[in-house]
Amino acid sequence: MGQKRGNDSKPQAVELKKRKKGGKAAKASQDDSWDGMVSIDELNWKEVAMPDRMADAEGFFGLEEIDDVEVIRPQGNGEIQFKAKSGKPKKSIVRTPTAEETKFEEWGGFSDGESTDKPTGLTTVTPEPAPEAASESKEDKKSKKKETKEPKKKDTKEPKNKDAKKDAVPKETKPKDTKPKQNSKQKANLTELSFAALEDDDDEDGVDVSAWDALGLSPELLTGLSKMKFATPTTVQKSCIPAILDGHDVVGKASTGSGKTLAFGIPILEHFLEKRGKSNNSKKPPAHPMALILSPTRELAHQLAKHIGDLTTNSPDTNARIALVTGGLSIQKQQRQLANADIVVGTPGRVWEILSTGTGLIAKMQRIRFLVVDEADRLLSEGHFKEFEEIIGALDRKEHNDFPEDEEEDEEEEKEDETKARQTLVFSATFHRDLQQKLAGKSRWTAGDIMDKKESMEYLLKKLNFREEKPRFIDVNPVQQMAQGLKEGIVECPAMEKDLYLYSLLLYHPKHRTLVFTNSISAVRRLTQLLQSLQLPALALHSSMAQKARLRSVERFSSPTADPSSILVATDVAARGLDIKGIDCVVHYHAPRTADAYVHRSGRTARAGAAGKSVIICAPDEVVSVARLAAKVHAKNPNATAKKLPLESLEIDRRVVSRIRPRINLAKRITESNIAKEKVSADDNWMRAAAEDLGVEYDSEEFDESKGKGRGRGGGRLQREKQASSITKGELAGLRAELKNLLSQRINIGVSERYLTAGRVDIEALLRGEGNASFLGHLDPLNF
Ligand SMILES: Nc1ncnc2c1ncn2[C@@H]1O[C@H](COP(=O)(O)OP(=O)(O)OP(=O)(O)O)[C@@H](O)[C@H]1O
């Protein structure tokens, strides 16, 4: 078993087997008198391969490990040392400095501040802001701190230190990245596991980030933002970051994909940098976590950790430890991770499990500076309320601090930070209308009914114990809940022809990455198979799939190398928070059940200022409820009236519908037969196993006969299933061949000899392969 390390070694800790990467380059003397002892930073660490699932990454990213070393404990207070295990060459455990490190070593540092006797390594070469920037920024931080101590009475959107900061920050931040290997490699590891599309790793150039100047951020984070190519803050970031930096509690509402994660992530990291700067010891593990971010689902928690982690990785010298606390790992491990993290991201169930069983963890967590509740309304619908209430109760309980070693730091903190109360930040894209009115101060809170309405958002907010009497309610888009670049459409069709219209829509929009929502798992299964049999690159996502299969589907769908026409068929498990870049179109195969679901589903496209489309396929008996739902979503939109909603009615060309019907009929028969066969075989296996357990004989034919005779509920379905499953292999092969033949031809929508000779068809264009490759003839686009 090898040793593992992370970024910060702590000599006294025997568990220093793990630390974040980025230790000093080795310069161990390798002459004959050398006794073979090396320090932690001189070891030849190897990067640990990242596991398939983020959950298996144990919460900390970028670990390194080493084999064949012995840990030599110090006498007294000395540093732990290492030496090669007996039988191994002494030098085998020593790292050779890279050419780059040697170069920097010779160069001798950046400025007066750098001590020349520093041994070696990345700490020496970590990019520092220009000297004046560094000193000004310290001043700024001090002044900002003063402001933070007391939430301002007046709502100032810009921090006071704006001007000073402005000078400190390079306009065109082209960071002299002195940790290129570490950063890009860590980034690669993370992005491999990410839901988001991979970015071009080779391109290290930053963008101009002067648009962020007004927010007065540190040079470190500006460099990170520059590298991530976030040239301007989004509206929610512009409004929330100053309020949070000023120490206010914030309830933030902003449309999907508008950048809410960094709206709270950036102030948290600013606080981290400020506190770390003061402690003058970046290597010491934190006495307690600084922020707790609660998220309703594992996927979202992973995404949040990754998004904030990306910013820390890209920001020089910002090695905040992020612990991901979700199911799937040993409690003891997560207790350790949580205790040593700067930022804890987790689901309420798991966080509570860890806190309630760990010794002293509650006392540590009581000292967090930020509590973030993301996708707050879903936290309730996911049934996390009980654990959430327990966590809040525990955080607010008075407990003794049983960490004597932290006392010194505590006193220091206490002296400097008079506002010990934590800041609470609540974010979502949807809050119901009554609550919005109350938060905006337009209607009153009535204590009586709130306490009766347990598990409501009102109750949750009351429980949160804000530091201020009233949190700042920042509603970035009070009139428009939908993203600006989103176009909404509706396709009306007979209830039994939704497959046909879905297929038409997909053919109308080639090279569109499409997310199709259904209301049931069985519909996801059926539609995925149906589309696959039509040779479309469809993938499934629903909650009954194993976690690994879910992640695989999302990654295959979102990978930049994926087919640009990729289709993900999903239940509402994918409706919230999932940040997949480049989804062009969301199709609601089943109408969403609530207005919020419509907002969140549609919010998977048109993210971060991009354009996107959302189309509801609507049966006649759904039209009224869909119109009501759209009216609710657009209630405050001045351009929408009950008669004129921003829902474009999309007319699918009848010729298309009639020409593709044979394809759909064949594909449906093949799919139904496959599903019925799978089901029969699963039932059969189950019956056989049950019969075996009971010690009776099982005759499947006899059983089938008795099943088919039933006239009660489900009798018709059983008959259909039986019929579908009774198609022979030969018949099925025949159907497949027929479908394959149809799919090999383009859909002819009006090209005949008569048209060709009458000049109705641009033959040249046809030969050039222009237009929609699925069709032969001219197809009027949907203009949508
Ligand atoms: N300032 C910025 N400039 C450009 N892109 C940004 C900026 N801030 C965030 N993004 C990108 O925008 C996307 C959406 O961000 P995020 O996931 O935080 O949105 P959200 O508001 O939380 O959405 P949802 O409500 O759906 O969870 C992400 O891919 C993120 O990388």
TrEMBL record:
Helicase ATP-binding domain location: 241-439
SUPFAM superfamilies in the cross-refs: P-loop containing nucleoside triphosphate hydrolases
Biased composition (Basic and acidic residues): 135-180
Stored InterPro entries: DEAD/DEAH_box_helicase_dom, Helicase_ATP-bd, Helicase_C-like, P-loop_NTPase, RNA-helicase_DEAD-box_CS, RNA_helicase_DEAD_Q_motif
Function: RNA helicase.
Similarity section: Belongs to the DEAD box helicase family.
Protein's recorded name: ATP-dependent RNA helicase
Top-level taxonomy: Eukaryota, Fungi, Dikarya, Ascomycota, Pezizomycotina
